[in-house]
User: Fold these one by one.
Assistant:
Number 1:
Amino acid sequence: MAPYVSKSPRAAYLNYRDLDIGTNNNKGNTSYAQASIWGVKYFKNNFNRLVQVKASVDPMNFFRNEQSIPPISVPWWKKRGN
């Protein structure tokens, strides 16, 4: 396993937020471009899909934290379910 272990291993925990990767700003108005810098590292290929889900489920960004998916504006016709 030696080739696969990092030089400075750390503990890993369920639901642990690795803030070293990056975070949103404190005001909660992080842009997609800013969040994608760390979001792609953290969520891999799921980041863009999660942004789309966030836009339809939580457009007002009620559920936010240091590493939450940023809200993007959704066209009005998608908000109505058409």
Note: The chain has a mean pLDDT of 73.
Number 2:
Amino acid sequence: MANKGSLRALASLVRGHRGAVAVAVSLSLVGTGVGLAEPLLASATVSAAAEHRPWGWPVAALVVFFVAEAVISALSQYMLDRTGENVVLDLRIRIVDRLLRLPIRRYEDHRLGDLLTRTSSDTTLLRNTLSSVMVQTVTGALFVVGGVIAMILLDPVMFIIVAVTVLAGVVPAVAATSRIRQATLLAQESLGGMAAELERALSAIRTVRVAGAEDRERDRIAEPARKAYRENIFAARRTAVIFPAITLALHGSMIVVLVIGALRVSTGSVSLADLVGFLLYVSFIVSPIANLAFGVVAMHKGLAALQRVQQITDLPTEITDQPGTAVLPIPLRSGAAAVEFRNVWFGYDPETPVLRGLSFTVPEHSHVALIGPSGAGKTTVLGLLARFFDANSGQILIDGRDITEMSPAECRSRIGLVEQSAPVLYGTLEENIRYGCPDATIDEVERVVALAGLQELIRRLPDGLHTPVGEHGNLLSGGERQRVAIARALLPRPQLLLLDEPTSQLDSANEALLIRTINHISTECTLLVAAHRASTIEAADARITLNQSAELASTPTP
């Protein structure tokens, strides 16, 4: 069975929706009361007919109660289902918010497809669980408790017979659910693996096609799908025994009640009307008991999904403020920034430093090329300045202020970054350019379009700036994506612009254009460029050279 901590976690999801749950449970209570009165009315009808008394009123009341129960049950189920949807909506938004705020290095611990599965598939399973647990378990429990009380009042002897018979079937059936949670967890993990493998193949679909690897990728993706299938079939087999076992036990108890009840009626120990009412209560609790058992199954599945969801929601977010430091307002972006590294040590694995005692200074309004062999730490330097991670020791200063005294938001408000991969998001060209500054005027957009050399592209596109660029910007060339990324970085007028191999995907003509643009930009802000190409290096005012082990760096030199 689930432990108390797991159940508390599941219950905590509805904490902010207590009002709606209270209304729904109240409706369930009323509906249960109405339903439990129906066998009594049926018994009254039988008594009236047997004693030749008028029986029209109990029949009419029975019809009214049937209709009332149906309406109340529908309202209750709607309220509970709606609450379940609201809970899962809140949870999905929490997951998305957490995923967008994780420390950068945390993304390396999870595959994209698996994260998407946790956000969609696992939360859908959790929604179904909440609906099942709240509807089936709450309603079923109320019906069973009410039915048990009524049967005890009608005939305690026959109730004991029913209880023993039913427990003989229900206990083994519920015990059969013990492995369902683990099977569901394995199935959901396999679905996450399948989504991750599919995302891997689709993101490199041209390579897959050229390599003729469609069949291999299909088989690779099918393996976790088959594992999920096997685990779900295992859970289905366990679930399949529940209803037949409970139904068989209850029907068996009804046969016993009929036989013993007939004998008790013949001896005058119980009336025929009471026997009819008792049998109706036995038949009434068949579905509620089954619902309780299915609620246990749903709870196991939901707890498995909740476990995967909590693995994300429990992750720490990026630190927004350094403890013990003043929270300063984000400054207006004006002027250029000076940068200084003082004896900075950093390693993605602390045991294997990438930067060893790195020190250099970049004056404001300068254009500095950061050069060195692959693996020397050029991209790492840019990542440290953007506070994607913090140095293990040493200081990094912008305008004389340690960046750890700034929140990441304040630090990044001073910086523009153009990554080597130049990511372009799904949407229009204008939406991509405005991404970091959505309120920019059209004049400001046109300014950076000109700076990045995008005028010709815009003239060629059917809808100009309003043209969709496709998934990951796949309707643009590599060079066009890079220029879009540069325009996006320039729009907020950063004090410090970081460029990681900005000309790596440009032809010679566009490279020359971009270098002229970069030279012009340095009049507005400081430029730090990680560079390999000779033309990019030669365009700089000064160079910082990292050696192979990143132990030494020269100060900026012409």
Note: The longest helix spans residues 56-100.
Number 3:
Amino acid sequence: MIRISKIIAALFIGSIGSFFFLNNLFNLESAYSVVSYVVSGADQPNYKIFGPVSSSVSLNYLALIIIMVIEFVIGLLGFYGAYNLIKNRKKSLKEFNEAKKFAISASLLGMFFWYGFFVIIGEGYFQMWQTIIGLGSVEGAFRYGTICAALAFYISINND
């Protein structure tokens, strides 16, 4: 039962990354608008951004592409990790634990991505917390980063 729950956890990670990638892909202009709004430093009522901001279409699309590629990789690693866990679910403890590496990698990448990109860079540097659009993204990123961290811990413990 514990092994099955770890497979489900890996599927959750794959789903999180994939859903965000697909939502951005199918709403590309909206995703671009949000990224552009944040990195331009528009509507900063309290703290002004102390460093450079971007109004470059190319740089803003590059930022969005980086975000989407990482979301895609999280999804891919999560699903591939689940596949490896399914394939090794009836094997020895050692083999099952070795099969966890892609699921754990997906979880850790998700944690570092959502905390690093959105909480540290977005909230810390671009002051996203000052706007409704930015705050929603930061709050979501905190949730997803926390979920990824908890699932990374759960998948990695050797209680199977």
Note: Residues 57-87 form the longest helix (31 residues).
Number 4:
Amino acid sequence: MLQSLKHSDLYRADQHSYMLYPNRRLPGFLQKNNVAPEKVSDSALTMKLVEEEDRRLLVRDEAGVFHFNGRFHNANDVSRVLDDLVQEPTYADLVPAERDFILDLFESTFNHRAFTGRSGTFFAYEGLGSIYWHMVSKLLLAVQEVYQWAVKEGAKAAVIEQLAAVYYDIRQGLGYNKTPAVYGAFPTDPYSHTPMNSGARQPGMTGQVKEEILSRWGELGVTVQDGILDFAPTLLQLEELTADSVEFTYIDLTGSEQKLSLPANSLAFTFCQVPIVYTLADKAQIEVVFEDGRVQLSAGGQLDKATSQHIFDRDGQVQLLRVQITI
């Protein structure tokens, strides 16, 4: 399904991403609110209204096509007119027999039940042809969750690889992978949506940031289960590791700026303001550097509960984690 999505009407090649709904051509003004004569030919109420030249409910034009009262907003307005008509001797016997028919005709004419908001009726302003970046980030996170489930359940390697490929293809369509010319704004800034034939619109108006934080932790393979920190970055791409030795700058638990030298083929980030350095190795291992200078080694990618709690508490007991990873 995910592979087919890119070949569907939801895909926008210009942004390498997906719309909430397929773009569509709306009917013109004169194509709306039209009731064909044959639909009401058996309606005694409608024929009586025409005979009486009563335009409160339906109006017949010169071509014989009927139209509901242009002042109607919804079925409640139709019901109110029917309530008025039933009080009049001319229509008293006709309205009860045809109330449901008239209301059903109104609904079938306007199809209000299919209304999905501005996404299916407006132009721009999160309307037709628009990409909702929050929704794309939700798609990204959902694919990541399926990937993680596949890894956990021991799915076939080919399936896991395909899920990872789809994941990063979706990620490639998100802002920071684009040039300002393509994105239509600063690529690192979150925007609500991108209308058809336009750049990104509504800066900051998006829940995308939340999903991006969650998906980034997933890419780094950081999870917490039963109060225990685990590092298993199976989704992390090798190109994210440094090619040469570099310096990593971060803010420590005291609010001070610190610098950390990183070797080639490494990556650094902080968790609860504790620096964590990933380095490539043949086997997974964690080296914990404590405040008092002690160094604790443990095989695998999982910390013990006590050390994890020190990090969660931000008590300064843990100064650094060096995590050897295998990708």
Note: Residues 222-325 form one domain.
